[in-house]
C-alpha cells in the first residue's frame, strides 16, 4: 500500500511535467508542499488507476503489455542521450564519478562495481514486498517451467539490466549537470525540449502506472480479500489500497522525502529481506521442498504447521535478529559491538541492506530451526 501511494505520486510528476511544459505554468505551493498543478496531476492519476482496476484484471494485463516495454524504451533512449552528451567514455568514468565526493548522491566513495552492487540491492529492496508476495503472481502461471522463465528474465535479468541503465543515467547526469538528479522527469525538464517533454511525459506516466498496478496494487488487493473473504473482494481490496495510497502519496513531498528516498527504501528492504531469507532456507534446506498440503489448512493445536500457538517463534526470532542488523546497516548508530563503525565505514548509504538482511535471515533461521 505504501509503495502504491509512492508510485502514484511518481506517475503524477509525469502529468505535472506535461501540464507545465504545455502551459508554462509551474503553479504555486498550495498544500503539503505541492502546487496546484501537482495536486491536479496527483488526483488524475489516482482516479485513472481506480478506473483500471475497477474494470478487472484483464484490462490491467492489457495495459501492462503496453507499459512494460514503454519503460525500457524510454530509459534506454534517455541513457543513450545522456551517454552521448556526456561523451563516449562515460563507462570508464563511472568509477571516478562515484568516488568523486559529495556530488554523487548517496554513493560517495564507491567505485563502479560497488556502486552497481549498491544500486542493484536498492532496486531489490524496492521490490522486496513483491518478492515476498510471490504467490499472488505464481497463481497465474500454467506450469513450473513458465514460472522459472518468468523469474529468470522478469526478476534476475530485469534487475541486472535495469540497474546498469540506472547507474549509467545517474553517472551521466552528474557529469553533465554537476549534480545528482533523482527523478527522470526532472532530467527531462533540464533538457527543455517540448517534443521530448511530451513523449517522455506520456511514456513515464504509462510505465509508472503499469509498474504500480502489478507491483504495488495486486498484492495488497489480494491480501485484503484473503483476510476477510466474506466481506472484501478484489475490487474492495483495491479500493482500500487506493485510499491508503492517496494519503501516503499526498504526504510524499512534505513528510517522506524529507527522510531521504534511498535510506527509506533501504530501511524497508532491510525489514522485509530477512523474511525472504527465512522462507527460502525453511523451504529448501529445512523442509527439503516437501510440504504437507493438507496440514497447511489445519489450524488445530497439534497440526504440523501450528508451531507455537500458531506462530513460528524461531522464525520470528531469526527475523528480529537479522532485521536489527540489516536496519543497522542503514542506520549504524543503533548497532553495538563495533558493528556501528563497520557499517558506517562500508559506504553506499545502506545500499547493501537487502543482501545483508536476506543472507542473515537464512543463516540465523537455519542455525536455530534445523531441528
Separation, N- and C-terminal Cα atoms: 36 Å
CATH superfamily of the largest domain: Hydantoin permease
The strands making up the biggest β-sheet line up spatially as 1-2
Number of separate helices? 17
Beta-strand segment tally: 2
How many domains, as an integer?
A: 2
- What is the CATH class of the largest domain? Mainly Alpha
Question: Mean pLDDT, nearest integer?
Answer: 82
Detail the poorly predicted runs: 101-105
Global structural class: mainly alpha
Question: In the CATH hierarchy, what is the architecture of the largest domain at level 2?
Answer: Orthogonal Bundle
**Rg calculated over all Cα atoms:** 22 Å
Helix content: over 70%
Can you write the helix and strand succession as a string? HEEHHHHHHHHHHHHHHHH
Strand content: under 5%
Amino acid at each position: 500500500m505504501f509503495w502504491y501511494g509512492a508510485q502514484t505520486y511518481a506517475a503524477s510528476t509525469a502529468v505535472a511535467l506535461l501540464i507545465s511544459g504545455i502551459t508554462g505554468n509551474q503553479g504555486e505551493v498550495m498544500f503539503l508542499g505541492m502546487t496546484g498543478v501537482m495536486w491536479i496531476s496527483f488526483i488524475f492519476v489516482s482516479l485513472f488507476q481506480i478506473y483500471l482496476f475497477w474494470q478487472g484484471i484483464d484490462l490491467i494485463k492489457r495495459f501492462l503489455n503496453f507499459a512494460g516495454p514503454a519503460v525500457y524504451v524510454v530509459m534506454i533512449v534517455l541513457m543513450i542521450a545522456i551517454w552521448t552528451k556526456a561523451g563516449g567514455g562515460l563507462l570508464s568514468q563511472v568509477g571516478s564519478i562515484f568516488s568523486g565526493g559529495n556530488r554523487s548522491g548517496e554513493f560517495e566513495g564507491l567505485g563502479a562495481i560497488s556502486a552497481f552492487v549498491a544500486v542493484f540491492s536498492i532496486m531489490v529492496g524496492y521490490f522486496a514486498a513483491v518478492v515476498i508476495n510471490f504467490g499472488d503472481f505464481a497463481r497465474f502461471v500454467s506450469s513450473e517451467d513458465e514460472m522459472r522463465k518468468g523469474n529468470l528474465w522478469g526478476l534476475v535479468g530485469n534487475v541486472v539490466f535495469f540497474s546498469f541503465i540506472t547507474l549509467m543515467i545517474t553517472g551521466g547526469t552528474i557529469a553533465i549537470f554537476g549534480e545528482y538528479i533523482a527523478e527522470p522527469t526532472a532530467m527531462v525538464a533540464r533538457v527543455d525540449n517540448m517534443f521530448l517533454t511530451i513523449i517522455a511525459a506520456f511514456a513515464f506516466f504509462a510505465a509508472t502506472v503499469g509498474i504500480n498496478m502489478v507491483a504495488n496494487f495486486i498484492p495488497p488487493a489480494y491480501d485484503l480479500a484473503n483476510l476477510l473473504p466474506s466481506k472484501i473482494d478484489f475490487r474492495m481490496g483495491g479500493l482500500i489500497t487506493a485510499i491508503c495510497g492517496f494519503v501516503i502519496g499526498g504526504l510524499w513531498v512534505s513528510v517522506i522525502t524529507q527522510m531521504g528516498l534511498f535510506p527509506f527504501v533501504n530501511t524497508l528492504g532491510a525489514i522485509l529481506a530477512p523474511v525472504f531469507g527465512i522462507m527460502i532456507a525453511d523451504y529448501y534446506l529445512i523442509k527439503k521442498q516437501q510440504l504437507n498440503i493438507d496440514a497447511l489448512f489445519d489450524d488445530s493445536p497439534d497440526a504440523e504447521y501450528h508451531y507455537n500457538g500458531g506462530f513460528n517463534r524461531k522464525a520470528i526470532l531469526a527475523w528480529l535478529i537479522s532485521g536489527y542488523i540489516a536496519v543497522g546497516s542503514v542506520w549504524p548508530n543503533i548497532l553495538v559491538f563495533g558493528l556501528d563503525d563497520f557499517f558506517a565505514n562500508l559506504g553506499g548509504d545502506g545500499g547493501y541492506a537487502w543482501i545483508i538482511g536476506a543472507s542473515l535471515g537464512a543463516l540465523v533461521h537455519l542455525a536455530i530451526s534445523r531441528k
